[in-house]
Amino acid sequence: MKTNIAGERALVTGAGSGIGRAVAVRLASLGCTVTLAARTLEKLEETAALCNAAAREAGHGTDAIAHTCDLMSEQSILSLVRAVADEGGLDILVNNAGIVQAGPLEGIATEQFDAVMATNARAPFILMRETLPLLRASRAAEIVNVCSVVAHAGYPNQSAYVASKHALYGMSKSFAAEVYDEGVRVHVISPGGVLTDMVAIARPDLTGTPMIVPDDMADAVEYLLCHRTDAVCDEIRLHRVTKAPF
């Protein structure tokens, strides 16, 4: 049974490009009012225009809302959450934003490690904590944390990124157990190489090979949100077609 999420309110981080943009546009096409968060207003405005066009094409009258946010700043995150509350509340949180530092561990500066952890793990932690009162008021609250295959394996030359995604994965499992009885569901999507600017940094060896595309990620998010039944999917893992199964 497919769930209709039209009329729900969603917040997507990292919505200026890549996976975040694809997810935001998909949610708009499904009738959600989408709040877009990223650092660059110009990119957010581009995403908002795509969201609004997708909503109109699908027969919805919703308009996306853009908010610049520095996810390394707790105050900036708190301001974002206050804006979301003032704009009508929240049903769906998609923690998608992420950064990567590639190279041997011995060459990663402490401030680089801190930036990766702050963006990829600390920001979702703050967002889940601060939006929980809003999600509790929803009839069907959902959190989707965009994790990674590296949350399940230690890839060389990605130590900071691997550490951050292990942290996000473990935190997602614990938080899911904490809020499950309240009707708040926490899901994880763990993809392999996705065709974005970030994968070119982390895995330059994949250039020119078949990869997961952002719309594949949007498909996964849509499945999690639109199949809220008595069967629960905690995690979706995706891998490249050229990578061996399992």
Automatic annotation (TrEMBL):
Record PROSITE patterns: ADH_SHORT
Entry keywords, A to Z: Lipid metabolism, Oxidoreductase, Steroid metabolism
Classification via CDD domains: SDR_c
Enzyme superclass (EC): oxidoreductase
Domain Ketoreductase, chain residue ranges per copy: 8-198
Protein family (similarity comment): Belongs to the short-chain dehydrogenases/reductases (SDR) family.
Name assigned to this protein: 3beta-hydroxycholanate 3-dehydrogenase (NAD(+))
Gene: fabG_8
